[in-house]
Amino acid sequence: MxxxxxxxxxxxxxxxxxxxxxxxxxxxxLTRRNRPLWMLIPGGVLMLIVIVGPMILGIYMSMxxxxxxxxxxxxxxxxxxxxxxxxxxxxxGLLRSVWLSVSYSLIAMLITLxxxxxxxxxxxxxxxxRGIVRSVFLIPYVLPTFVVATVWRTMFQPEGxxxxxxxxxxxxxxxxxxxxxxxxxxxxVQIWASWPFIYLLAxxxxxxxDHEVHEASAxxxxxxxKKLRYVVFPYLKGPLSLAFLIGMLHHINNFTLPFVLxxxxxxxxxxxxxxxxxxxxxxxxxxxxxxxxxVVSLILIAIPLFIYLRAVKLDDGESGGTK
Amino acid sequence: xxxxxxxxxxxxxxxxxxxxxxxxxxxxxxxSTGGAVDGTGKTLNVLVNVNTLYPEQQKxxxxxxxxxxxxxxxxxxKYETFTSANEELxxxxxxxxxxxxPDVYSLGTTFTPTAVATGAFVQLGDEEWKKVGGKDRFNPAxxxxxxxxxxxxxxxxxxxxxxxxxxxxxILAAAGIDKPATTWDGLLxxxxxxxxxxxxxxxxxxxxxxxxxxxKFVWAMSVQAGNGIVDDGKAKIDDPAMKKAYxxxxxxxxxxKVVNPASVGWSNSQxxxxxxxxxxxxxxxxxxxxxxxxxxSPLAGKxxxxxxxxxxxxxxxxxxxxxxxxxILSGDNIVVADYxxxxxxxxxxxxxxxxxxxxxxxxxxxxxxxxxxEGLAALESAPHMxxxxxxxxxxxxxxxxxxxxxxxxxxxxxxVQSVPELAAGNVPDATLSQRLKDAxxxxxxxxxxxxxx
Lengths: 323, 453
Known about the structure:
A: 323 residues, MetI-like fold, B: 2 domains, 17 helices, 14 strands, 13% strand
C-alpha cells in the first residue's frame, strides 16, 4: 500500500506550548544535576503545613477517644489505638456507606461518559449557533451544587413536577426523596450536574486532534464511525481517563448534593460516606471515630486509585494537564 | 524563567506571611478585668445566629445595640453570625482548642447541653446572676435548660420561641367547633370533623419531613404520658409510651387520614404554606414567627393560636405526675466563654439585652418572646400573644445531657426511615418496634459515653 507517510504517528507529544520540555537540550546551563531544587522549599513547607501536617494530626486523632467531653483538652484525651477503627468497620455501617458511595459514583460516571463525549463530538464542527449550544451545555456545571440540589429537591417533592409527569404517563413511581428510589435520585441528579465536566474535557481532547489527521483519515476512506473509533478516540483516552478519575473522586466526596437533597439523618438507602462521616462528627460529636472513618475510606479509595493511576499512566507526567 | 521564579517565590512568601499574621490577628484586646463596666478601649465579641427572616432588621439591631453598649460601658461591640448549629459548634471547637474566640455565644436551647458539655463556658454563681440583673428577672420556665441542675447553670435565657398550634377560625366555626381541644384524642376528633379530602381540606397540617418537627411531637406526647425519654442515665425510647406516640403521629396519616398525603415530603414551612392557603384547620408545631407570614396571607384575621394538647394520646386529661408539656423549651440562651478576658463586659452586655425594654423591642422586630418575666407579662394581651405566652410558661426542657443531640437524631431518624411506609399507608408494627430499638441502643450508648466522661 502506498500510504501517505503519517506526519505524526502518535498523539502523545503535548506540542501546544506548555513551557520547555525537561529533556530538551540544556539551556543556559540548567542541567538535571544543577537544578536549583532549593527553590522548592517554600512550596514544600506549605505542603507540609497544609497537607501533611493535618493528615498526620487526623491519623493521630483517629486513635483518640475524642468527643465533645474530651475536646477541651484534646491532646490528653484517652488513646485507644485501633479502637475507633474496629468500631467503624464492625458497627458503624461504614463499609455499606463506602459501597453505596462507590457504586453510585461509578454508575453515574459510566452514564456521563458517553453523554459528555457525544455532546463534544456533536458540537465539534462549526454550525450556526454552536456558541450558544456550547454555553447552554455548561449551565449545569456552572450552577453551584447547592442550587442544583435545591431545585431538584423541589421537583422531586411528593406531588411535585416529577411525580406529576410520571402520573401523566400513568405511572406511580413512589417517593424520590425517601426510600429505595433515593439511590436513583442521586445518580440522576449527579449525572445532570456533572456530565458537562466530561463534555469539557472531551472537547479539549478533540481540539488536540490535528486537522491533518482528519484529512489523512478521510483520504484513507475512513467513514465517520471508523474515524471516530480508530482516529479520534485514541486522542481522547488521556483526557477522559483524567475526567473519569477526577469525576469519581468528586462524586464520592460530594457532600452538598445528598445533604441538600435528603437532609440529615439520611434515608437508609442513601447513607453515603460523606453523610455518615458528617453525622458522626457533627451530630454525634465522635471526632475520633469520624477521623478513623475518614482514614479507612481514604485507604479504601486509594487502593483502586493507585492501580488505576498505574494503569493509565496519568502519574508519569506524559499526558500533561494532570493536577 | 529566571525572572519569574524568584518573583513567584516572593509572592508565596508574602502570601504565607500574610496568612500567618491573619491567623494571629484579631486576638482579644489586652488588659483583663479593669473596672466593673468600664470597657473603654476594649472590644466584646458576640456570636449570634443569623436571622434569615429579617436580615435587614438584624443589621439595624446590631447597630442600635453597638451604640447602646458604647454608651453604657464605653466598649466596642462586635457581632459575628453563624448560620447553623453545626457552624457554631465548629466555632466553639476551634475557640475551645485555641483558647480564643468570641466572648459571648448565643446558643439554641436544645444545643445548650452539647455546648456546655465541652466545658468551655462560665458557670453562673450568685455574683454572675447579680451582674446580669438577677435570676428572678427571667421567666422561671426558661431557666429549665440553662444547666444540668438548678445549682449548676450556664446559660442565661435570652428569648423564647415556644411551640403552639395555629387554627383556622372559619373552618372551626363551619364545623361547629367552639375551641381547639386540649387533648390529642380530642384534637384528632376535631381534625376528622374538619377534614374534607374531596375539597383538598385536611384537619391537620403536619410536616413529616421536617428536620425537627417529628421528634418534638413524639417528645411532647411521651413526656405527657410520663416518659421523659432519659431517666437517670437510662434511655427510654423502646417504651410503650414512646411507641404509642409514634403510632398516634403516624396514624394521622395512615389510619385517620386527617393530613394531606403529600405531607410526607413537607418541611415546616411547607406545612405553614398549606395552612396559610386555608387548606388545613389546625397547624400544630409552629411559633410566633409564623405571624408575619400569616398576616400577609389570605388567612389574615381568620387565624388564632392555641397551646398544643397537654394530655397524652389515650388520656382525657393531663396525667398526674407527668409533665403537661405544651412545648419543648425553645429559644436561645446566652453563655460566656471561660477563656474570655472580658467577662465583666460580657455580663454587662447580657444585662443590657435581657432588660425589659430591649426584649420587648426585640419581640416587636423579630417575633421572639422575651425571656424577661416582666416583658413576657406585658405581652399577654397583645394580639395572638395569649396562647403564645401561655405556652412559654408551660414549656418543659428536654433532658440536659450531652447525649441529647444523638437522642434527638435517633428520634427523628425513626420518622425519616418510616416515610416510605407512611406514604404507602402503613408502618408495620414490627418495623416500628425495630426502629425504636435501634434508636434506643444508639441513645443508650451515647448516654453511657456522657455518663463516663
